[in-house]
Amino acid sequence: MDTKAKKFTLATISALSLLGVGIVTSQSVAANDRLVSTQAINGQSYNILNSEVTSTSSGTTLVGIEGTFLTPDKQAILDRINAIRKEAADEGLVTSYVPIKWSTALEKTAFVRAAEASVTRHHKRLSNKDIWSAWPSGNFSLAENLAWNYDGFMIAINQWYEEKADYVKSRSGASVSGQTGHYESLINPELTYMGLAAFENPVTQNGWITIAQSFGTASGGSEELAGGYGKAIQYTEANSSQIQTFATKANLFDKDLKAIGTHTSKKTKQGKSNGTNKPGFFFQMQDIGRGMGFWRQSGSRWWFMQLDGSYPYNQWAKLDNIWYHFDSSGWMQTGWLKDGKAWYYLDGSGAMKTGWLKDNGSWYYLDGSGAMKTGWMKVSGKWYYAYSSGALALNTTTPDGYRVNYNGEWV
């Protein structure tokens, strides 16, 4: 496990950095600019931020996502990214140094995408439309970065910057397992404008802040901050059939500002991270091969991030041919675990044990599936008896009248 690994980023989707060719042409999108009004809800003031569409498509409806938009330090953000760009140019990683500028329109795009990604945890929209459809005022986005952390903008930039080492290796032909798309977008001289938004959804797993970065080649008319920071309800188009599912991942409002479902207060953090995800109502096992994700540590606890940004929770997962179990919040578990009617043992590294196990002075036998055995069992040609607790009977007479020796073998 990599004790230096931290936080959580999701792979960049970019017509430039992934395809490596050309510029995406602008598409005709019927969209209104973001309009801001202020409403008092339950005694608190909220900025009401409109969707980029005024009318919904068939099978969709407008929903508002409650949260808080953090106020960006625009100059500090631009200075940091441009320092990264200058470094890349000086080291020959890009053909030229082109400082990136702020775009109000792309910031508005990032507003919507940060709110949506706090729910989907992916490069997906709640409407199932293409993410590039989140364009205000006819502007358009060419690339998107997403990140999750507890602090916001500058940490997200550093998360993306951490991919530099793998990017440099990949340029030399070396095989790398990590992502590099975020870093590529940061340094791409063809991407000359950007907007950044950080959204704190009170229902988000582990209390993470979602950061979205949108890139383009035009300002869309303004290079100023968009405003509208603080408590907000960001409206967006959502698939009508999935509203109730989305309502478990965010506090939602309908178009009349009426609450959808039961609203949840902000999750509290314990140490660096904590959160409660609703447990699944089914048993799931997943086989995740080598190179399909990364271990992440928070304090003394571990979780596993898959390359698509998801993570196993409330389930077994096979990682590099070793079985682990993750609780309903996604934390790797250790010690005794009851799953269904069977008991399993996960050692200090989280690995599921099989075979003989000595714990607190007693011997137990875990079969090939990891399940603890009770009663009579035959192991390597010899018979043993384990009580209902799983503890092996030693040098005694079993409840059904048979003698076992000091090793637990029937004699």
Which key terms come to mind for this protein?
411 residues; alpha+beta; Pathogenesis-related Protein p14a; left handed beta-beta-3-solenoid; eleven-stranded mixed β-sheet; three-stranded mixed β-sheet; 6 helices; elongated; disordered N terminus
Please, could you describe this protein's structure?
With 411 residues, the protein is of the alpha+beta class. The chain folds into 2 domains: 8-260, Pathogenesis-related Protein p14a (3-Layer(aba) Sandwich); 285-404, left handed beta-beta-3-solenoid, CATH 2.10.270. It is built from 6 helices and 24 strands. A hairpin with a 5-residue loop joins strand 10 (252-253) and strand 11. Helix 1 (74-90) packs parallel to helix 3. The protein starts with 7 loop residues before the first strand and ends in a 7-residue tail after the last strand.
Give a nutshell description of this structure.
The protein is α+β, with helices and mostly antiparallel strands and 411 residues long. It is built from six helices and 24 strands. The protein is 15% helix and 31% strand.
Lay out the secondary structure.
Layout: E1 8-14, E2 36-41, E3 44-49, E4 60-69, H1 74-90, E5 101-102, H2 104-120, E6 143-149, H3 153-161, H4 164-171, H5 181-187, E7 193-200, E8 209-216, E9 230-239, H6 243-246, E10 252-253, E11 259-260, E12 285-288, E13 293-298, E14 301-306, E15 315-319, E16 322-326, E17 335-339, E18 342-346, E19 355-359, E20 362-366, E21 375-379, E22 382-386, E23 396-397, E24 403-404
Parallel strand pairs: 3-9, 5-7, 12-15
Antiparallel strand pairs: 1-6, 2-3, 4-7, 4-9, 4-10, 6-8, 7-8, 10-11, 13-14, 15-16, 17-18, 19-20, 21-22, 23-24
